[in-house]
User: What shape does this take?
Amino acid sequence: MNPLERAEAGPGPAFTVTFDGRPVRALPGQTVAAVLWAAGVTSWRATRGEGRPRGVYCGIGVCFDCLVTVNGRPNQRACLVPVRPGDAIGTQEGTGHEDVPGSRDGAGHGGVTGSPGGTGRGEVRRAD
Assistant: This one.
């Protein structure tokens, strides 16, 4: 028997997020990585030096290979960040700070990423 039937559980209704401007279907509870994989996207970042493609490596938030930009916030770990309706997900370019307001030198040394106060999910904090 299907465990979902036994528990009378099922996902909530699908919603849309965007990845690099194109609409992508998502389900409640999915991470950014799960949504991208389901859409057939396996790489969403390139290494700084040689531009090699990267996506999920460890899947548990330890390796930082899966970094993406979510709603304008760079360096979000796709394997940890849950999607929400209307999220705008983007390919991570370089360090992710080149075009971020508040970056003093274009190298990302100008502030803290993530939401004020932080959620503890999918954020990388930088200390100056």
